[in-house]
Amino acid sequence: ETLAQSLLPWLHQRGVDASHDIARLSGICGLFKDRCETLVALADWAQWFYLEPLASEADRLQFLTDTTQPAVQALCDALETVEWNRAAISTVFKQVLAERGLKMPQLAMPVRVLTLGTPQTPSVDAVLELLGREKVLARLRKG
Fold first, then answer.
1. Are 7 and 44 a contacting pair, CB within 8 Å?
2. What is the rounded distance in angstroms from the CA atom of residue 103 to the CA atom of residue 8?
């Protein structure tokens, strides 16, 4: 919580008011703090939980293919009704992967690109849990 409070001014500079969302911001900080050496770097990650992600065209072309797009849609459909926690999200991922004959990176990377704008994040199920069902589904559908 202390780290989340310290991050608020850096998020405010980016147009994000997360002062009403300290519990969630604390979870985001916990997930990303090992990847960041400064509050600036942590704010760079955290902002995408509040702002629309900016995926590069290169990442979109590389990870959103004719093979992965139907899998992303199937994941999106399955996530609509699942209990919203990390374990349930992980189970849905595994089901979609098995049904589609894909490996985790083939689905996780496009999902990350669509939800946070980058193919590399900590555990995708943890990221999606913190992002929240509404944002995840909206960002996946927007594709």
1. no
2. 37
